[in-house]
Each structure stands twice: as C-alpha cells, then as structure tokens.
Amino acid sequence: MTDEAHIVTVGVANDYRGKGVGELLLIAALNHAICRGSSLATLEVRPSNIVARSLYLKYGFTDRGMRKNYYSDNREDAIIMTTDHIQSREFLSQLNELRKNHELRWGSAEINLE
Ligand SMILES: CC(C)(COP(=O)(O)OP(=O)(O)OC[C@H]1O[C@@H](n2cnc3c(N)ncnc32)[C@H](O)[C@@H]1OP(=O)(O)O)[C@@H](O)C(=O)NCCC(=O)NCCS
Fold this sequence. Notes:
By secondary structure, this protein is an alpha+beta fold. It is 37% helix and 18% strand. It has one domain: Gcn5-related N-acetyltransferase (GNAT) (Aminopeptidase).
C-alpha cells in the first residue's frame, strides 16, 4: 500500500521451524520494502502467537493497536504491529546488525529481490 509495506503471511513448514528460516523470510521482506521505498512495515498477529510475536519484536515491530474479531476461524483479535521508519539510519543499522548475526548463526543465504 503506497508507502506502507503490509506483510500478510509468514509461514515455515513444521519440520523446518526453529532453524532461522522465518527470520530469513522477514529479513528478505524488509529488504524488499526498503528497496521499494516504503517508509514502514506493518502486519497483524494473534496475541496467542508467542513465537511470531517474539520474531517481530526482535525486528523492531511494536504494538500499535488491535483489530477486533479479526481471525475468521475463532474470532480472535489481532494485534497490529508496525516498525518505525524503515529508511531511517537507526532502522537500517539495526537490520544490518540482525542480518549479520543471522548469517553468523545460520550461514549465508542469497536474498533475491526479483
Ligand atoms: C512464526 C514462524 C514464521 C517463525 O519461523 P521460524 O523459522 O520457526 O523462526 P526462526 O527459527 O527464524 O526464529 C526467529 C525468531 O522467532 C522466535 N522464535 C522461534 N522459535 C521460537 C520458540 N519456540 N519460542 C519462542 N520464540 C521463538 C525467536 O524470536 C527467534 O529468534 P531467536 O532465535 O533469536 O530467539 C513459524 O514458527 C511459523 O511458520 N509459524 C506458523 C505460522 C505463523 O504463525 N505465522 C505467523 C503469522 S503472523
């Protein structure tokens, strides 16, 4: 949406969770948003989804509001999580640091933004 990158779905197959794949997907999505000139990234997450919330908090997303009865399966509310300005020096430097740490921990991966 215009200058706002909306992350709709992030998912990793069960057998591959906990191995840095979700984090790599988020790094790629944020890189993509930065390259496209977006000013912030936003998403919705279930309050009960501790794993996803922990991942998003690590990458600078913070709680900005709620959407009532957002999920159609159980009518659970959604928390809206949004970054600060993703083109800012602070955000870019934090993202670069996280990306380097991810590479040290899990090995290098080519991120293709095509
Ligand atoms: C959420 C999801 C995408 C995370 O992907 P993943 O590959 O398992 O996560 P990673 O191995 O990359 O871990 C990245 C971070 O996620 C969080 N995390 C991962 N596993 C966790 C666990 N078991 N408990 C708590 N936090 C966890 C941590 O913040 C972790 O960073 P850290 O290792 O420095 O602590 C994945 O669990 C998933 O597909 N879940 C089901 C679908 C879903 O809920 N999608 C999100 C919808 S908003």
